[in-house]
Amino acid sequence: MENIKQSPGILFVISGPAGSGKTTLCDRITNEMSLKRVITCTSREPRGTEINGVDYHFYNKEKFKELINNNAFFEYAIVHNNYYGTLESEVIEPLKMGNNMILNIDVQGTKNIKKQSNECPLLKDRIFTIFIVPPNLEELKNRLKNRGTNSKEEINKRLEVAKKEIQEQHLYDYTITSASKNEDFNNVASFINRINKNQ
C-alpha cells in the first residue's frame, strides 16, 4: 500500500493580467514539474478547444450560484461579468495528501485565498504567490489580439483591468516581468524549487 505523505502539500498561486502567459506557464509547470493543477470553475463559455473538467469546470450562472449557496467554493469572484471560483474539494483534499498544487487565479481570487488561509490551519505557511507582469501594455494588447478570441471592446476592457491588476503586484511573494516563454518558465521553476527545498 502506498504511503500517504505526512506533511501537507504547498499551494502555489499564480496571477497576471489576461494575456500575460500565465495559463501556458501553468500548463508547462504541471507537465514538467511535480505539481498538480487546480482546475477552477467559470460561468463563461468555453473558448476554442477548451474541455470541461480539463481546462475549467464550466457551469452556467444558475449552477454557479447554487454552489455558492452550498458553500462549495474556497474562493470566488466576478471577473469580466462572469463567475470564477475554486472549489474547496479541488484544494483541501489534494494538499492533505501531500500534493503540491498550482492555482491560476486573478488578483481578486488571490486576496480571497489569503483571507481563507488565515482561517484554515492546513494552509498556514503553505501558500506562495507569484505575479506575472507584462513587459508593457502595448505588448499585452498584441498578445490579446493574437489570441483571436476577443473583440476590440473586450480587449480594451481587459487592458483597463490589467492596469489595476498590475498595481496589486506588491501583494505577491514573487514577481517576474514576462519575457520569452522559456525565461518565464525558468524564473518560476527556480522560485518553486527554492520554496520546496526550504520546506
Short note summarizing the structure:
By secondary structure, the protein is an alpha/beta fold. 42% of the residues lie in helices and 20% in strands.
Give the tags.
five-stranded parallel sheet, 7 helices, single chain, 9 strands
Question: What does this 3D model show about the protein?
Answer:
Helices cover 42% and strands 20% of the residues. By secondary structure, it is α/β, with parallel strands linked by helices. The strands form two sheets. Strands 2-7-1-8-9 form a five-stranded parallel sheet, with helices on both faces. It has a four-stranded mixed sheet with strand order 4-3-6-5. Helix 5 (137-147) runs antiparallel to helix 6 (152-166). The longest helix has 18 residues, at 181-198. The protein is globular and about 50 Å long. The model is unreliable at 1-5 (pLDDT under 50).
- Major sheet characteristics: 5 strands, parallel
Instruction: State Rg.
Output: 17 Å
Strands, count: 9
Distance between the termini: 26 Å
Structural class assignment: alpha/beta
What characteristic shape results from the CA principal axes?
Answer: globular
Poorly predicted sequence stretches spanning 5 or more consecutive residues? 1-5
Strand percentage, roughly? 15-25%
Proportion of helical residues: 40-55%
The number of helical segments is 7
Mean pLDDT: 89
Instruction: Give the helices and strands as they follow along the chain.
Output: EHEEEHEEHEHEHHEH
Strand arrangement in the largest pleated sheet: 2-7-1-8-9
